[in-house]
Design goal:
2 domains, 3-stranded antiparallel beta sheet, single chain, Aspartate Aminotransferase, domain 1, alpha+beta, elongated, about 30% helix
Length: about 240
């Protein structure tokens, strides 16, 4: 992306680092040559955000115009953004790969390499599905509810155990163990007969792993918990 701006750039971030937002509730990733950001464009509206959705437009007003000229009318950009003076674009070591050579990237409209078209297409389908679910905030609530349903049961039974500390628990991959590992095979066979597959945990840690990513409906987790209760009644 050719972010051509006239030097000097004012206000220059390098001179205003102390004014950047700070605190435990911010996820801001400065890099040696740029910063990590999310950019959303919907027509004439462009929003630059930190990874945890804090607005950054007012810190980078110089980027809005070149982004409006470069980005498609509707898009989401997640990556590292770099602001560089035009007269410094070609100052690179001879060994610099083309992907990190700003002059070559600018000349190729940031497409020195072939864009991953299939990945972009699939990502578009996923984004459309997420929007149909109510957006990121809505899917987060659903994921919290799904994980809570499974963890709440695991915390009330002695037949299963969840090895991860509560503060470290994943909402996406829920690990648990049966109190008697000799029952693992029977548990997996019964789960598959009930329509649930791929519950076997990683070979390095054993046990079970329930992957309840965005696409897993709440009813799927409810079915798993019901099966776990039935299995406990049978073998507990």
């Amino acid at each position: 992306m050719d972010l051509a701006v006239n030097a000097p750039i004012l206000p220059m971030l390098a001179k205003r680092v102390s004014e950047l937002p700070e605190g435990d509730n911010w996820i801001f990733e400065p890099k040696w040559d740029g910063f990590r950001a999310l950019v959303f464009r919907d027509g004439d509206e462009i929003f630059i955000q930190s990874r945890d959705e804090k607005p950054l437009n007012r810190y980078f007003p110089e980027l809005l115009e070149p982004l409006s000229k470069t980005l498609p009318a509707k898009c989401v950009l997640d990556g590292e953004m770099v602001i560089v003076r035009n007269d410094l674009m070609d100052r690179a070591l001879p060994i610099t790969p083309s992907a990190f050579h700003w002059q070559e990237q600018a000349a190729a409209d940031s497409m020195v390499n072939t864009p991953p078209t299939w990945s972009i297409y699939i990502a578009g389908l996923v984004f459309e599905w997420l929007l149909a679910q109510g957006g990121v905030a809505a899917i987060e609530k659903k994921n919290i509810a799904k994980a809570a349903l499974l963890y709440d049961y695991l915390d009330t039974t002695q037949f299963y155990s969840a090895p991860a500390r509560k503060m470290d628990r994943s909402r996406m991959n829920v690990r648990f163990h049966l109190h008697d590992e000799s029952l693992d095979a029977a548990f997996l066979i019964g789960a598959k007969e009930a329509g649930m597959d791929q519950l076997k945990g990683h070979r390095a840690v054993g046990g079970m792993r329930a992957s309840i990513y965005n696409a897993m409906p709440f009813e799927g987790v409810r079915t798993l918990v019901a099966y776990m209760k039935q299995f406990e009644q049978q073998y507990g």
